[in-house]
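ARCHIVE CARD
Drawer: 12
Card no.: 0347
Subject: one protein chain, sequence and derived structure
Cross-reference: see card 0346
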Amino acid sequence: MLQEHIERFIMLASLEMPNLIVSALFQGAELSDESALLTFLLPKVYSLEELIDELEDQMELILLYHHIPSDATVFGHHCCVYSNPHFDHMYKFNAVSDERCQCDTIYITLYSSLEVMGVELRNELVETGKRGRFVYNRKVDELLRDFI
Protein backbone atom coordinates (compact mmCIF):
# COMPACT_ATOMS: atom_id res chain seq x y z
CA MET A 1 0.00 0.00 0.00
CA LEU A 2 1.37 3.36 -0.95
CA GLN A 3 2.75 5.66 1.72
CA GLU A 4 0.85 8.48 0.01
CA HIS A 5 -2.47 6.69 0.67
CA ILE A 6 -1.59 6.33 4.36
CA GLU A 7 -0.57 9.98 4.69
CA ARG A 8 -3.76 11.14 2.96
CA PHE A 9 -5.88 9.01 5.31
CA ILE A 10 -4.11 10.40 8.40
CA MET A 11 -4.57 13.98 7.22
CA LEU A 12 -8.27 13.58 6.38
CA ALA A 13 -9.13 11.45 9.41
CA SER A 14 -7.47 13.92 11.80
CA LEU A 15 -9.69 16.66 10.34
CA GLU A 16 -12.90 14.58 10.30
CA MET A 17 -12.38 12.79 13.64
CA PRO A 18 -10.16 14.99 15.83
CA ASN A 19 -11.43 13.31 19.02
CA LEU A 20 -10.03 9.99 17.76
CA ILE A 21 -7.23 10.57 15.27
CA VAL A 22 -4.33 12.91 15.96
CA SER A 23 -1.49 12.72 13.46
CA ALA A 24 1.13 13.26 16.17
CA LEU A 25 -0.14 10.12 17.95
CA PHE A 26 0.46 7.86 14.93
CA GLN A 27 2.61 4.95 16.10
CA GLY A 28 3.39 3.28 12.79
CA ALA A 29 2.09 1.00 10.05
CA GLU A 30 2.39 -2.63 9.06
CA LEU A 31 2.06 -3.02 5.30
CA SER A 32 0.87 -5.93 3.19
CA ASP A 33 -0.14 -6.29 -0.45
CA GLU A 34 -3.85 -5.86 0.31
CA SER A 35 -3.91 -3.57 3.36
CA ALA A 36 -2.07 -1.42 5.89
CA LEU A 37 -2.57 -1.65 9.65
CA LEU A 38 -2.11 1.73 11.33
CA THR A 39 -1.73 2.12 15.09
CA PHE A 40 -2.75 5.31 16.89
CA LEU A 41 -2.74 6.27 20.52
CA LEU A 42 -6.05 7.90 21.35
CA PRO A 43 -5.95 11.56 22.46
CA LYS A 44 -7.63 10.48 25.71
CA VAL A 45 -8.42 7.19 27.38
CA TYR A 46 -11.96 6.04 26.62
CA SER A 47 -14.09 3.38 28.22
CA LEU A 48 -15.01 0.88 25.50
CA GLU A 49 -18.64 2.08 25.64
CA GLU A 50 -17.58 5.73 25.25
CA LEU A 51 -15.33 4.81 22.35
CA ILE A 52 -18.13 2.92 20.60
CA ASP A 53 -20.42 5.95 21.08
CA GLU A 54 -17.74 8.25 19.66
CA LEU A 55 -17.23 5.97 16.66
CA GLU A 56 -20.96 5.63 16.04
CA ASP A 57 -21.27 9.44 16.04
CA GLN A 58 -19.22 9.44 12.85
CA MET A 59 -21.71 9.53 9.98
CA GLU A 60 -19.95 7.10 7.68
CA LEU A 61 -18.96 4.43 10.24
CA ILE A 62 -21.00 1.28 10.83
CA LEU A 63 -20.66 -0.85 13.96
CA LEU A 64 -19.75 -4.40 12.98
CA TYR A 65 -19.60 -5.80 16.51
CA HIS A 66 -19.03 -5.30 20.21
CA HIS A 67 -17.68 -8.58 21.54
CA ILE A 68 -16.99 -10.00 25.00
CA PRO A 69 -14.60 -12.96 24.79
CA SER A 70 -15.20 -14.00 28.42
CA ASP A 71 -17.57 -12.92 31.17
CA ALA A 72 -14.80 -13.73 33.68
CA THR A 73 -12.90 -10.51 32.94
CA VAL A 74 -13.32 -7.08 31.37
CA PHE A 75 -9.91 -7.44 29.71
CA GLY A 76 -10.16 -8.02 26.01
CA HIS A 77 -13.63 -6.70 25.23
CA HIS A 78 -13.40 -5.38 21.72
CA CYS A 79 -15.23 -3.61 18.97
CA CYS A 80 -14.98 -3.09 15.25
CA VAL A 81 -16.49 -0.42 13.02
CA TYR A 82 -16.06 -0.01 9.29
CA SER A 83 -16.49 2.75 6.78
CA ASN A 84 -19.67 2.67 4.76
CA PRO A 85 -18.59 1.55 1.26
CA HIS A 86 -21.13 3.95 -0.29
CA PHE A 87 -18.86 6.83 0.79
CA ASP A 88 -15.98 5.32 -1.23
CA HIS A 89 -13.76 4.79 1.81
CA MET A 90 -12.16 1.46 2.65
CA TYR A 91 -11.11 1.14 6.28
CA LYS A 92 -12.05 -0.34 9.63
CA PHE A 93 -11.29 0.55 13.24
CA ASN A 94 -10.61 -2.04 15.97
CA ALA A 95 -10.16 -1.40 19.68
CA VAL A 96 -9.52 -3.73 22.64
CA SER A 97 -10.09 -2.89 26.29
CA ASP A 98 -7.57 -3.32 29.07
CA GLU A 99 -8.20 -4.76 32.55
CA ARG A 100 -10.26 -1.64 33.50
CA CYS A 101 -12.33 -1.82 30.28
CA GLN A 102 -10.45 1.25 29.02
CA CYS A 103 -8.99 1.85 25.56
CA ASP A 104 -5.96 3.98 24.81
CA THR A 105 -5.07 2.66 21.35
CA ILE A 106 -6.99 2.21 18.12
CA TYR A 107 -6.01 0.05 15.15
CA ILE A 108 -7.08 1.12 11.68
CA THR A 109 -6.87 -1.13 8.65
CA LEU A 110 -6.81 0.56 5.24
CA TYR A 111 -7.81 -1.69 2.36
CA SER A 112 -6.73 -1.68 -1.27
CA SER A 113 -10.16 -2.77 -2.59
CA LEU A 114 -13.78 -3.12 -1.51
CA GLU A 115 -13.69 -6.83 -2.36
CA VAL A 116 -10.81 -7.48 0.04
CA MET A 117 -12.44 -5.35 2.71
CA GLY A 118 -15.80 -7.13 2.43
CA VAL A 119 -14.24 -10.59 2.61
CA GLU A 120 -12.01 -9.68 5.58
CA LEU A 121 -14.89 -8.10 7.52
CA ARG A 122 -17.07 -11.15 6.93
CA ASN A 123 -14.29 -13.50 8.03
CA GLU A 124 -13.56 -11.41 11.13
CA LEU A 125 -17.24 -11.40 12.11
CA VAL A 126 -17.57 -15.18 11.66
CA GLU A 127 -14.32 -16.00 13.49
CA THR A 128 -15.03 -13.62 16.36
CA GLY A 129 -18.46 -15.18 16.85
CA LYS A 130 -16.95 -18.62 17.47
CA ARG A 131 -16.01 -17.72 21.04
CA GLY A 132 -17.43 -15.49 23.76
CA ARG A 133 -20.56 -13.52 23.03
CA PHE A 134 -21.62 -10.46 21.10
CA VAL A 135 -23.20 -7.49 22.84
CA TYR A 136 -24.02 -6.37 19.30
CA ASN A 137 -23.17 -7.75 15.90
CA ARG A 138 -24.24 -6.90 12.39
CA LYS A 139 -25.71 -9.87 10.59
CA VAL A 140 -23.58 -11.34 7.78
CA ASP A 141 -26.28 -10.71 5.17
CA GLU A 142 -26.53 -7.03 6.24
CA LEU A 143 -22.76 -6.69 6.00
CA LEU A 144 -22.65 -8.25 2.54
CA ARG A 145 -25.49 -5.99 1.33
CA ASP A 146 -23.30 -2.99 2.16
CA PHE A 147 -20.83 -4.16 -0.49
CA ILE A 148 -23.33 -4.72 -3.31
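Annotation on reverse: The helical segments are 3-16, 48-56, 114-128, 140-146. The two ends are 24 Å apart (CA to CA).
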